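Re-run with default settings, no changes from the original entry. Doing this only to confirm the output is reproducible before filing.
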Amino acid sequence: MRRIFAFLFITLCTCLSAIPAKASKLSDEGAAYKRDLIKAIKQADKIVVTEHSDQYDFFEVKTHTFQQQEQLVYQTVILSPQDVVNFKRLVKAVPDRTQYVSAACIFVAHHTIKFYAQDELLSTLPICFKCGAQEWDGTKHAPPQEIVGGLRKFITAIGLHPEMKWRQLADERLKKDGLPSGSD
């Protein structure tokens, strides 16, 4: 038994000794992502944050199919100049340490941040708070490990909700609009 633990300990130490050089490079990735995001915030003359439905809110478990449904928008916030300052500050505060692993859940984005300049869409940042992931098309760099935590604080600060009963909300909205819901 001691031999097994000794072998595992030596193997672990060998693996960990290779991390510092790679970790530095990976921290560089997180820092580059943050630089790109701050640049996008500065370049945008309008930033719009939307809280909305996702296609998985319309998934029929019984038939394993998706209902044909347009995205439902629950709230939209156009950032004020002070919101933009707070957004930049929050991004800068996120540690550079790069995200090493991806979430193992289905990406279900209920929030999207869109960056505009002169009414032209520059980039889109959908966020899934359930699995703690984002898929920003404005960078080629890996995100910092804690970026979604920072985005959660930001979303909450502007009055939106990282967590909701999204399927129930979609069903209620569809019923209100006189459309069949997933629970019908």
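The chain has a mean pLDDT of 84. The radius of gyration is 20 Å.
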